[in-house]
Structure formats: structure tokens, C-alpha cells
């Protein structure tokens, strides 16, 4: 039985993939034990690259080779722009993170790296490149979120971040991303592998950076 292209990429990204999925931040998040300071630092930085993420999603929509794929991306863009962005704003309010607190800290190195790789992939106008970054950003999060046990943590800040990344629609979207990358990635294997592996490394570094003192 032939191994899926996306699975070969995940295997090539080891051990960084497993280190991310089993990271201290993930373990504490699933236990509802992430401190407010760490959670605030993480969310401030994560919200920073939402603009670049939307740019990448738009590039994937524009470079997709089917109407059905463009519809899928359009729907997901709506979710990120609405439900996910609103989660950030509600969490900032609950954590007492002011607008000044959100803009004052400089970008962490991983945040700057994410902004750069998302815009780099978008600029290639390659569907495979865009998919390679998106597949990591969504699939890796589904991988860790599926480790959650019930009941979820009491705080909505923890619980909703988990459910945003493990629900039927999100699982379906990750399946779609993988299927599309399985289909077009082999035709641009070197590009796909390069973007995929660099994005996995950034995910690990991003989780690490949540524990860096401001």
C-alpha cells in the first residue's frame, strides 16, 4: 500500500512534529493549566500573523484548480475572519490584555518567521506551496487537539482554543487540505517538502516562545 504524500512529509518532519504535538504548552493547555501570562503571550503573538494567514488562504483560493476547492477556502476564510478572530478578542478581554498590551511587544522570532513564510508561499502563486504551509498549520493543530479528554478545561480560553481545532468542520477541512496536497504535491515535491518542513520547525519554535519572558 502506497504511503500518502502528506504522511511522507509528516514523517520527514520528525522529531519536530511530535515535539510540537506533545509540547509542554499543549499538555498544559489540555489540562487547563496554562498560566494567564503564558496564554496571553501566546495569543498576542498568534493573533499577529492572522493577516498573513488570510493572505495565504486567499492565495490558495486564487491558485486552486477547481471551483469546489475555492468554495472550501472561501468558507474557511469566513470562519477565521469571524469566529476565530472573535475568540481572540474575547480572550484578550478576559485576560485583561489591553490594545496597548497587544501592540507593544515586538514580534517574536517565530512570529516573524510565520509571517514571512506565509507571504513567501502566497507570493509563489503555487497551489502546492500554499497547501504545504496550510496543511501544517491546521493538521498539526488537529493532531494535538484530538488528544483532549472530556470534560474540557473550565476556562473558555483553553476550551474554545481546543474545540476550534477539533470539531467536525475543522476535521473535514484538514482532510480536504491533505487530499489536495496528496494530489498536487508530488508534482512539486521539492517545493512542498521545503515549505512543509520549515513550517513544522516554526510551530515547535512558536510553542517554545510562549515561555520566553517578555
Automatic annotation (TrEMBL):
SUPFAM superfamilies: Heme oxygenase-like. Catalyzes an amino-pyrimidine hydrolysis reaction at the C5' of the pyrimidine moiety of thiamine compounds, a reaction that is part of a thiamine salvage pathway. Thus, catalyzes the conversion of 4-amino-5-aminomethyl-2-methylpyrimidine to 4-amino-5-hydroxymethyl-2-methylpyrimidine (HMP). PANTHER family: BIFUNCTIONAL TH2 PROTEIN (PTHR43198), SI:CH1073-67J19.1-RELATED (PTHR43198:SF2). Its EC number is 3.5.99.2. Pathway: Cofactor biosynthesis; thiamine diphosphate biosynthesis. Keywords: Hydrolase, Thiamine biosynthesis. It comes from the Bacteria. It is an enzyme of class 3 (hydrolase). Pfam families: TENA_THI-4. It catalyses: 4-amino-5-aminomethyl-2-methylpyrimidine + H2O = 4-amino-5-hydroxymethyl-2-methylpyrimidine + NH4(+); thiamine + H2O = 5-(2-hydroxyethyl)-4-methylthiazole + 4-amino-5-hydroxymethyl-2-methylpyrimidine + H(+). CDD domains: TenA_E_Spr0628-like (cd19358). This is Aminopyrimidine aminohydrolase. InterPro entries: Haem_Oase-like_multi-hlx, TenA_E, Thiaminase-2/PQQC, Thiamine_Salvage_TenA. Belongs to the TenA family. Residues 11-212 form the Thiaminase-2/PQQC domain. It comes from Bosea eneae.
